[in-house]
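Objective 1.3, modelling of assemblies. Example input:
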Amino acid sequence: MGIGGRLKSWIGDQRVEQLRDRLAELAEQSTEHHLRLAVTGLSQSGKTVFISALVHHLLHAHRSGSLPFFDVATSGRIIGSRDLSDESGTPFPLQQAIAGLGREPPHWPASTRELSEVRLAIRYRRPPGLRRVLGESATLYLDIIDYPGEWLLDLPMLELSFEQWCASQQRLFEQEPRLSVASDWLTRLRQVDWHAPAEPALLQELSGTYTRLLHRLRSDPYALSLLQPGRCVLPGELEGTELLQLFPLVLPSWPMGAIPDGSFLALLKSRYEQYRQQVVRPFYLRHFSRFDRQVVLVDCLKTLNRGEACFEDMQRALNGILQSFNYGRNGFLRRLFKPRIDRVLFASTKADHVTANQHHNLDRFLELMIQDAQRDMGFEGIATRCMAIASVRSTQAAEAQVDGQTLSCLRGWRKDSDEEIALFPGEVPTELPRAEDWTQERFRFIDFAPRRLPQNELQPSHHIRLDQLLEYMTGDQFR
Amino acid sequence: MGIGGRLKSWIGDQRVEQLRDRLAELAEQSTEHHLRLAVTGLSQSGKTVFISALVHHLLHAHRSGSLPFFDVATSGRIIGSRDLSDESGTPFPLQQAIAGLGREPPHWPASTRELSEVRLAIRYRRPPGLRRVLGESATLYLDIIDYPGEWLLDLPMLELSFEQWCASQQRLFEQEPRLSVASDWLTRLRQVDWHAPAEPALLQELSGTYTRLLHRLRSDPYALSLLQPGRCVLPGELEGTELLQLFPLVLPSWPMGAIPDGSFLALLKSRYEQYRQQVVRPFYLRHFSRFDRQVVLVDCLKTLNRGEACFEDMQRALNGILQSFNYGRNGFLRRLFKPRIDRVLFASTKADHVTANQHHNLDRFLELMIQDAQRDMGFEGIATRCMAIASVRSTQAAEAQVDGQTLSCLRGWRKDSDEEIALFPGEVPTELPRAEDWTQERFRFIDFAPRRLPQNELQPSHHIRLDQLLEYMTGDQFR
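Predicted structure (tokens):
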């Protein structure tokens, strides 16, 4: 007698039929489910390449074996995957990006300038134990959403008045390199009578200058990250609109007295209010509130190479970004919506630029950079992990003998000269650098030229830990 | 009006007096408390040096500043410490060991052969917030108990019949190097008629041969760890008693038929039963059941140097030892007593024999060795951590330039020649070695000569992470 027969003999025919119908209904409901996985990071952290390579491996996972630690792939349970990105209103340029990575030399895709998404349908067989009850197979609709981390930097504006925001910016512009780079603009601000009737043309001119200033601070040699408003740097679909004609009043002292209607000051204040209400809030309401999980990419090595000011600014920016996950402290986020992100992964990119022997140090170094934010997230019930990864692996392991011991080295192509080299690429520091560590040009990680990612025949050696990342971010969904 | 006055106005004089008396009583009760911290490890893992150095730093913690990450010391709350080890029935030879470490050249204390303990009384000021309620100061009586890890190897015997135990030993003796080293003894066993009337003299001779065999397997070049019965290796106070005249019957086939009364087989079986009841059980009842926390020391580097057989045997032994903390699976431990160990720290010793850059790899390597046991302990509610430490630091950091990058090196004195050297000491593997890793003599960690530990003026540079270990194991007790 099968389980159905036994059940009937216990609780009667009719109840068993009802139960069976209910199970079938449940099974139907659960054969399709959705996961929205967001990917962000500060500029040049490699988001676009990451998404392209990740999806490329995923689309081949049913036959390539390139993701050994991604259980649903390794156990042969992926039936097939389809790219449905065209259904999205803001599709990620997937085919183009993957094709670019496969050229010789590879063509690195254009960087993230606005929100876009990949939509995948992944059909998989359930694990053996669940097949009987829930049916043989199911489909995970996986949305991977790419957006600039700079947009998250605007979150604190939701809590700050215009005066408070200007004061916070003033503290930044008191320090180098901002102080020197911005000196002309700071002088210009002092020459304006902020109580005089507003001239929109002048405001446009000043905001244009400010935007150029932000771009200069963002570029080499400064490469700063903590730049607000985030949309002035990466405007997305707001490019050229009045909403972005906005800047902080960084003055030695705040213009005293009442703010006359129609004055420069009143106009600037209303622009700030508009930006908060029409740009920052909608991003959280329309997009952020719908993310289930988040990957944050960080290029620790490049930031170390660039020196103290760049590193510290990046660390501040990163911790600013992570405020968006600190729902408790930022009560207004919880008032805006019911947060649902339950898992955040911090990925140190370009792990292929150091030896495997340094990967734990790279994991740990990122942990040190964000330890306070990570603790806060733990308190909010968000699981977090730091992981060193490489989206496309440009180097191979090599060895050298030093003092009779084996030293792990790398073989690859120098980015600047494209000559093949095999060398010791340096150590990842085990502690956050102290002031004296910066004086001696301690960090000189080599930039290796990217390798092409084949269109087929993907191997585990084409990436570092993309499979572990997928397992952590999506593994529990393939039930 | 103080808090007492305000309370009186709310709830009346008499109740406040009662409350005050009760608080004073509570405070008195809590001015003294005990913690029993057990330390074990397989032979030559450095238990005795570890305890000597740890206690030496602790006794100087109120004035030396050598433990920066040990909060109660750094915040200046330790008033003073006293060594009360003489009160113990089995005192650890503390003064002698510390004096030995201070000689030039240092005299390494004799290794652990039986259970012994250090008793310390540490008087400390409470943290500011608790002083008002609980009184200004309190005393922690810290017992540090040293015992051979080999004794824990006997735990599985509590669950195995003599036949089952012999079968488990047979599987071990089928493999090299045991098979070759034990060949004479194995032949001898086959020549005895186990059903014949027992001759105690022959049994004594055979058990003597077996004990010598265990010692041979335990020594270089084999250096095996998984040796049972543990007391035959380290007899402690049982040295020379009949209880240890015992060995497993490792025969091609088990002697068939009923076991005649008074036969060799019957005698051996009863010895096994005696050993379980009079040696193994009492250790758990009298000692193990009273431990609050446990440190397990492991010398990963030495074991890697010794090659595959030694490494794998040590890994098996270590996981065997950790069964003692797996109360759930070993229900008989829970039937014996109410286990109270709530925290276990696994310390990789001799972290000073690799560079600081390799310490995370050393932490992680030990985690890989014990990952199953660690997961089981988590399930039992026992907090665990792996930490690379050095009890007495023999090396200093040095640097070399390789390919234009800085490579961390060590400076120290070679143990074999006592010449001063500065060199790259090798990398800790990031994964458990595979078969092919053993063929090329991959692991050749240098043995550095120990440095003397001064009697006074202790510095943080005299150890690695003893302070973090103390904080993890005892920090919460200084309230």
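The two ends of chain A are 28 Å apart (CA to CA).
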